[in-house]
Amino acid sequence: MKVEDEDKIRKALLKKALGYNASEITEEYVVNDDGNPILSKKKVTKKHISPDISAVKVLLERYYKTYEDKVLAMSDEELLLEKMRLENLIEEGDSGDK
């Protein structure tokens, strides 16, 4: 599996594990005299998707043990860089849901 794919999966699991906000769009159309559909109503509903315990479980089982081994082998500089990377991921997730 490619590193990019693995990262996408990890981000998706993290999003599902933490919960997120989503918009749901409902559109209603009517047919005019010419037989063409015209948008008559559009409703945008904002929803909060609750955290999913199954995603948390998968994250812990799949990534934590491997991640723990990596962290134990890291130098102080590497740990600081990893901390900054994780903080950026959290900020991206927070700004992307609003």
Structural overview:
By secondary structure, the protein is an alpha+beta fold. It has one domain. It has a two-stranded antiparallel sheet with strand order 1-2. The radius of gyration is 21 Å and the shape is elongated. The mean pLDDT is 86.
User: Order of helices and strands, N to C?
Assistant: HEEHH
Strand percentage lies at 25-35%
Mean pLDDT: 86
| C-alpha Rg (nearest Å) | 21 Å
Number of domains: 1
Could you list the spans in which at least 5 consecutive residues all have pLDDT below 50? none
Q: What oligomeric assembly is this protein in?
A: single chain
Number of strands: 2
Structural class: alpha+beta
Strand order of the largest sheet: 1-2
Helix percentage: 55-70%
Structure, briefly:
With 98 residues, this protein is α+β, with helices and mostly antiparallel strands. The protein has helices at 3-18, 53-72, 76-96, and strands at residues 20-31, 37-49.
Can you give keywords for this protein?
98 residues, single chain, 2 strands, alpha+beta
Explain the layout of strands and helices:
Blueprint (H helix, E strand, L loop, with lengths): L2 H16 L1 E12 L5 E13 L3 H20 L3 H21 L2
Antiparallel strand pairs: 1-2
Helix pairs in contact: 1-2
